[in-house]
Every structure is written in structure tokens, then in C-alpha cells.
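Propose amino acids for all 229 sites.
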């Protein structure tokens, strides 16, 4: 049996302000820093340690992982960052307040944008300041990989190659793995690991800063999963 720890970053400043965030690189809120520390304390109390960490290229996840590893006195372990673990790119919704967006477009459409795996939120253009092609950290991405908007199914399409190429091989070497990422990149991973239907995944909401433990068998199939509280 092998344990895999999935962790959504602590509350961000825009979670707090209820704004669509996506690839916007906002920091943790004060509460988010506390949640990250608490996650580290919980993992420490329950005897967890890790051989490798994986995270996105967004500071709310990077900092959460760093704080957890600091609590565990594990800052020395390798940490691999990838844009593939980023939050779903929320297109032209990025920066907008979620309640104001509901008031403007109606709850049904906004809920579809947020949770329907195949519904695309409105796109940005390449002239938009939010276009990732203007951000140095994405300079090695091909034009096809640079999103203008993204649905959950496309998020899954870019998360899974990373899972298969890096996370699975680490677990096959019996390394203890922590993945610190985002609501929707983790939702995509969970849909894959748990074989959830599109219908089931729409109901899945991950709390910020609470470690989710997966117990996996030799074939990396799920035995059970639970939150650490
Ligand atoms: O990017 C965001 O706004 C959040 O992290 C996830 O938002 P959602 O719950 O609206 O998908």
C-alpha cells in the first residue's frame, strides 16, 4: 500500500475576494498562510514524510508546499514545478468577482462555466495582458499549449501527461509523494484516479489547505481516500 498526498493551496487573496483566479499569480491570504501551516502540522503529527514534491508555477501553491515542507523540516527534498499542474485557465473570467458574474450572466451559465467539464468560459485574445504568452515563465510552451480559455476536460489533457511522466514513475520507485496544486487541476487528477463520471466530478469541491490522502495498491488503484483533519 502506498500513500499519495494531494493538497489544494491555502486560501488565496482572490479566493477571499471571491474572484476567478485561474493562472493569475496571486498570493496566499493571511488565512491561507495559516491553513498551509496547519496542513504541515497535521502531516507532521501523523508521521508523514516525503521523498519528492510536485507543484505548479503559481506562488499560492509553491508557497503552500514550501510551508508544509518547512513544518516537516523537509525543505531539502526535490520539488518539481510545472505549468501542467496550474489551475484551470479561466479565460476572460480571470479577475472578475464570481457573484457579479452570476448577477450579469445568470447562475446557470456561470455554474456551467465553473463545473461543466466541456463548457468553455469566454476566451481572452492574444493582446490581453492576461495572455500567458506574455509571461516569461511560459516561454517554452508552444502556441497550442498557451490557453486563451480552458475547460476541465482540457485541464485534464494537460495534467495527465505530467501525472504519467513524473508522478507515477516516482510512486513506482516507492517514493513518497506530495502534490500541491489547485482546485481544478486536482479535480482533473481525482476524476482520473477515481474514475469519476463527468456528472460526479461536477459535485466535487476541494477545500483549501486540507491534505487529501489517497491509499493506493501496487497497481496504483485507489483503496480509499480521506481528508486529514
Ligand atoms: O481559479 C479560481 O477561481 C479558483 O481557484 C477555482 O475556482 P472555481 O471553484 O470557480 O472553479
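Proposal:
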Amino acid at each position: 500500500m502506498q500513500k499519495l498526498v494531494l493538497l489544494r493551496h491555502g486560501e488565496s487573496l482572490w479566493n477571499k475576494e471571491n474572484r476567478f483566479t485561474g493562472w493569475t499569480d496571486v498570493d496566499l491570504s493571511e488565512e491561507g498562510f495559516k491553513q498551509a501551516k496547519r496542513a504541515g502540522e497535521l502531516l507532521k503529527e501523523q508521521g508523514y514524510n516525503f521523498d519528492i514534491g510536485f507543484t505548479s508555477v503559481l506562488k499560492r501553491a509553491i508557497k503552500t508546499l514550501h510551508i508544509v515542507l518547512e513544518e516537516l523540516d523537509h525543505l531539502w527534498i526535490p520539488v518539481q514545478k510545472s505549468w501542467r499542474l496550474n489551475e484551470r485557465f479561466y479565460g476572460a473570467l480571470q479577475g472578475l468577482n464570481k457573484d457579479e458574474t452570476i448577477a450579469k450572466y445568470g447562475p446557470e451559465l456561470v455554474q456551467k462555466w465553473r463545473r461543466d467539464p466541456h463548457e468553455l468560459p469566454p476566451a481572452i485574445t492574444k493582446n490581453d495582458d492576461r495572455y500567458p504568452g506574455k509571461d516569461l515563465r511560459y516561454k517554452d510552451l508552444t502556441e497550442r499549449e498557451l490557453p486563451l480559455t480552458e475547460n476541465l476536460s482540457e485541464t485534464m489533457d494537460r495534467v495527465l501527461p505530467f501525472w504519467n511522466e513524473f508522478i507515477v514513475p516516482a510512486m513506482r520507485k516507492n517514493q513518497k509523494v506530495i502534490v500541491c496544486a489547485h482546485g481544478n487541476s486536482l479535480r482533473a487528477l481525482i476524476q482520473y484516479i477515481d474514475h469519476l463520471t463527468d456528472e460526479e466530478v461536477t459535485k466535487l469541491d476541494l477545500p483549501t489547505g486540507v491534505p487529501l490522502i489517497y491509499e493506493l495498491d501496487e497497481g496504483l488503484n485507489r483503496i480509499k481516500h480521506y481528508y486529514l483533519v
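DSSP finds eight helices and six strands in the chain. The beta strands are 2-8, 52-55, 79-81, 177-181, 212-216, 222-227.
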